[in-house]
User: What shape does this take?
Amino acid sequence: MLPHAIRIAALVPLLAGTVGIVTGADFLGEAAGPGTDSHLRALSALLCGVGSVALWCAADLEARSAVFGMLCGMVVFGGAARLLGIAMAERPPWPQMLVLGMELGVTPALWLWWRSRRRSARNREAELRAWLGID
Assistant: This one.
């Protein structure tokens, strides 16, 4: 179930990143110069990378757990930067507020779910070892 939830969540950065690459600053519906447009397209490519790595991690969470943990940390860090921007400037349009919810809500929830699942697996393994008398 968790891998499926990660795959669904990964669609957000994949789709938004792809649209950002193709449309540039027009994606935001605000006027921007060529420097801002270029910057947005590059960041959109990174967003596609985040979604792609999330899909890759979901395929084998056990083997890719360290990468998944770092990826979640990066996304939350981005959300914290977005929140700082709101505190220092002004509230962005509602689509960016939804993204903030993904960054500071959905991503930490997926990480906590993953940590809980890992802990449960380790406890089951320890119980089995104890029952078998293996140290």
User: Anything to note?
Assistant: The helical segments are 2-23, 34-59, 65-88, 94-132. The mean pLDDT is 91.
